[in-house]
Description:
The N terminus and C terminus are likely disordered. By secondary structure, this protein is an all-alpha fold. The chain folds into two domains: 159 residues, no CATH class; 159 residues, no CATH class. The longest helix is centred in the first third of the chain and has 32 residues. The protein has 13 helices and no strands. This is Letm1 RBD domain-containing protein. GO terms for molecular function: ribosome binding. InterPro entries: LETM1-like_RBD. Keywords: Membrane, Mitochondrion, Transmembrane, Transmembrane helix.
Amino acid sequence: MLIKRNIHGIVNNFKLTTTFELWLKNEHVTLSPITSVSAALTCRQLCSNVEKQPKGLMTSYEAFLSRRYPKAYVVHKMVINGCKWCWSDIKTYYQLKNDLRTNVRKISQLKRSELEILLQMKEELLKVAIIVIFIPIPFTIYIFALAVIFFPRLILTRHFWTNDQRKRFWAENLQRTSRVHVHPLQKYLQGLNVDLQTPLERLRELVLPQMSNCSIGHLYHLSRLHRVSFFVHGIRGLHARAEMLRLLDQTLKFDDSAIDAMEEQQLYQQFFLRRLQYDGLSEVEMKSLLKNWVQHMTGRNYSNCQPIFRILFVFEIKARFKLIHL
């Protein structure tokens, strides 16, 4: 029985390794064979190591931490919960990519939560790969604990952030990318005599350039704004992201109560996915703007230009709420 169980475990690990290598290959991440096997086995252990420990021992340890070292306990739970959430997103992301590649499902058939994972994980692949590789190293949990305290934004993904950190980090990221990448795109549109003050209701009347007609410099700024690798995915990556955003907008448009039922964290996430600044807006204002956005950005003919419309929407926010720094 022992030999049979060991063989069964080896087979399962081999299947998992093959699966993870395919995922890395699809996302243009190259690792050595030894590192690939280690990373795949690590992914499996990410949550199972915690779950397989005797519940009494883990409960006693956490009770000891919460009683004697409450701050350490908070960090401990952030690391454990972050690992579980990260691993859950990895599994979902791989399954979605596999379904789309094998035509099991079309992208138009995905749920809102699945579209959100596709959009977010694609931006975080490098950090996720680093986390997965370093997890098996002894005492790594202490390294992650230090990262949670001192370098959460630089090293870790949103899975390990607090609600306040997610709100602040996303807002700062939007402000930084706006300064660097939005202004050149605004000048480009002004050079084409595009009225940047056009309200959303009249966007259908605008004649905007197709992304394929933009210069390399402007495509680069557009790619950086939306965190798409221009040199790897090119214009196809921008089109793919625009289509996912359009479908995400559709899921909100067809569900009348979806936006009204959102909490602040969900609103921050929706604004960040669309690269729309929310700093200085109230919850009511965010819901109003998001409703306007999905109402006017769901037409199929907008898929090719939606990343450009985002720049015009910045001015809609400024005009409506008289905000200065967006």
